[in-house]
C-alpha cells in the first residue's frame, strides 16, 4: 500500500486461487480486512500453517502473514487496515475481481 490516492489495485479473475503476502515493516500492528471474501491464513513469517477462515487478520509488527482465497464475485473490493487513523491516511487498496473468461 502506498500514499493516500496512490494505491495500485490487486487485479484477479473470479474463481482464481490467490495468495496474498502481507508484510508489516513497521513497529505497529495492523488488522488487515478484505471485504466480500473469506481467506485462510496459510503462512506466518515464512512458516506454513493451516489457519482458520476469516476476513480480517492481525499482522504483527515486523512480520509477514500469507493468506489464501478463491476470488469471488466480480467487483471492486476494499483491502485495508482496520485502524481508522491508518485507513484515513491511505492504508487501503482495491482487490479488483474481474469476470472469468
Automatic annotation (TrEMBL):
Residues 7-98 form the Plastocyanin-like domain. Keywords: Metal-binding. The keyword Ribosomal protein does not apply. One of its GO terms (molecular function) is copper ion binding. It holds the Pfam family Cu-oxidase_2. The keyword Endoplasmic reticulum does not apply. It comes from the Bacteria. This is Plastocyanin-like domain-containing protein.
Amino acid at each position: 500500500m502506498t500514499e493516500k490516492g496512490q494505491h495500485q489495485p490487486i487485479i484477479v479473475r473470479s474463481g482464481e486461487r490467490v495468495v496474498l503476502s502481507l508484510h508489516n515493516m513497521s513497529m505497529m500492528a495492523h488488522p488487515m480486512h478484505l471485504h466480500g471474501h473469506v481467506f485462510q491464513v496459510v503462512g506466518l513469517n515464512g512458516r506454513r500453517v493451516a489457519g482458520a477462515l476469516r476476513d480480517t487478520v492481525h499482522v504483527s509488527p515486523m512480520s509477514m502473514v500469507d493468506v489464501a482465497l478463491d476470488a469471488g464475485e466480480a467487483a471492486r473490493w476494499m483491502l485495508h487496515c482496520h485502524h481508522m487513523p491508518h485507513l484515513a491516511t491511505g492504508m487501503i487498496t482495491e482487490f479488483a475481481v474481474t469476470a472469468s473468461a
